[in-house]
Predict the 3D structure of the following.
Amino acid sequence: MRLFRPTAARAALLGLSFALTAPVASWVQPATARGAPDSFADLAAKLLPAVVNVSSSQTIAAKAGNPNATPEMPTFPPGSPFEQFFKDFLNHNHQGQGGGEDGPAAPARRAQSLGSGFIIDPAGYVVTNNHVIEGADEVSVTLQDGTTLKAEIVGRDESGDLALLKVKSDKPLPTVDFGDSSQSRVGDWVLAIGNPFGLGGTVTAGIVSARGRDIHQGQYDDFIQTDAAINRGNSGGPLFNMDGQVIGINTAIFSPSGGSIGIGFSIPSNMAKLTIAQIKQYGHARRGWLGVKIQQVTPDIAESLGLKDASGAMVAGVTDGGPAEKSKIRAGDIILKFDGQDVKEMHNLPRIVADADVGKDVPVVLWRDGKELIVQTTLAERPADAQLASADAGKPADAAKPTSIAGLGLKVAPMTPDIKEKFQLQDGQKGVVITDVSPNTSAAERGLKPGDVIVEVQQAEVSTPDDVQKQVEAARKADRKFVLMLVQREGGVQYVPLSLSKAPAGKDKQPG
């Protein structure tokens, strides 16, 4: 089970209370709700046979050349009730070996991890979390009746933390079906069944506490939150609605202690069943891919571009040869709609694109040069993470005497061989180099520093300090509160809005 420990500040929020300061109006109609079930026993009895325990093991080799080093704890997912036992065993075994450089090397050991899963096909297909079986040499599945079957890993999806297993059985296995997670409402009753702490089939009940949770574990985060007790070892187990359908896969908990405090997170079934179907067919997930780097549209950025609301996803970079480049989407565009769906904020876009079919032609609504326009793009399949990282390290973004930029506290210089050598810039780098940033300025607050390269100002390419100055003054004359710069930094390219001072053109009030 993925574990998230709250900070002290977050933990303090748990103790907040409030008091009503005004009476409730007499005309407010009381809310009504369906009563709680008298018992979950019949439903649990029906579902338990299809929920399994998943056990994975891996070989931990001794370190070569250092027989006296304490063997490392294996990096297996949390959930095993033997974690402390394993740690104590390693320490005891190491101490018993004796010292000396000529001592015997520690033998290889086996580490075990326990989790949960559920059967979706009588032929033996089992769904679980990827982190339950990650790194495993062997995986086995234990049914409710105690039968243990060796499992084959059909495929895994690291980004979505899902995996599909296959077991062979002499008879058809009991199954459960995916439900429609979009129909689950906050307050609906749910059942969680799994293998907490290796105890075996355990049933807990609760409600849907929230939907659409982003816990910052991946770009596709869209978790269902529940207060049904979920603990270590529940990972990969199902979250059921009252019709006995799987509406979530229990994946993570938020806890200061490691135990359940009523905040658990489940991958929605609508996301999971698409991924699982792709793994079953192709051996991996096939996600739609647009080929853009994006950043959040802040109120400052929106104002600088004449956009009414701070919504959408801003294109900070375009991958060479990707669908976005082929459809003429460019850095600085704001993606407002994708395939008919509103992009309310940056984090919505990756999920919308990923769910779209590979090869599909989709309309994309953009904000460019102060107006909306629509382009058509054909989605490709998202490359592996390693391929994306390699592409990111390829082509750099379009990037004498330092010149002060009026009102911004910046000094910039043209791209000369000496400047490139001083700041270790690539030969093909374009733009204007920042050579100095005055403290207590908007530029300093935004984290700009010497060596950063200004590639664009107000979405216009710049190659000289004069280009920068002209764009800044044009924004000031247009009564903009912010000027938008595309900056090349060590971590990539990023749009940075800088506050415009009221200083007259050509007069830098900032020190330095």
The domain at 403-499 is CATH 2.30.42.10 (Pdz3 Domain). The first strand starts at residue 2 and ends at 4. The first helix runs from residue 8 to 13.
